[in-house]
Amino acid sequence: MSLDTVKSYFSSLNALDKVIELSESSATVELAAAALGCLPAHIAKTMSFDAGGDTLLVVCAGDARIDNRKFKTEFGVKAKMVSPAEVEERTGHAPGGVCPFAVKEGVKTYLDISLKRFETVYPAAGNDSSAVRLSIGELETYSNHQSWVDVCRNWQ
User: Could you give the CA distance from residue 71 to residue 82 in angstroms, rounded to a whole number?
Assistant: First the structure.
């Protein structure tokens, strides 16, 4: 899956205008913020975790960090990121473009409360030079998330 897959997904929702194709890299929070002209905190980074063989995504603010204790309390397993070599196979998106849209079947997405302080956030859109401009309500709708969670620290 890729930018084209994400664009098809948003097109099917009559929301293709939300997708932003960039001429520069958005592979990291810092690069994405520079390319989009926003604060790093407004980047909605999507992190992929191995939860006992299942894949789960946590979308959180760009300035937030996973809190291992909170993660284990929420999900019942230690926070173990999917290896870069397995990310695309497990999520449908390559590193630098992982997003909560058009993911592989069985992947569960969770939104961290660190995002709720913003009106607009920018998750990736399937590759390392794209983004999607969304309100929090749109992120809730388009991500098909399971629930809101509180698994991050250092953002308040």
Answer: 15
CATH architecture for the domain at 3-153: Alpha-Beta Complex (3.90)
Contact status, residue 22 vs residue 130, Cβ threshold 8 Å: yes
Give residue-wise pLDDT tens across range 104-137.
Answer: 999 999 999 999 999 999 999 999 999 999 999 9
Question: What sign results for the dihedral spanned by CA atoms 72, 78, 81, 82?
Answer: negative
CA 118 to chain centre: 15
List the chain domain ranges. 3-153
Q: Which residues, 6+ apart, have CB-to-CB distance to 56 below 8 Å?
A: 48, 49, 75, 107, 108, 109, 110
User: How many residues are given for the chain?
Assistant: 156
Distance CA 70, CA 78 (A): 10
> pTM value?
0.95
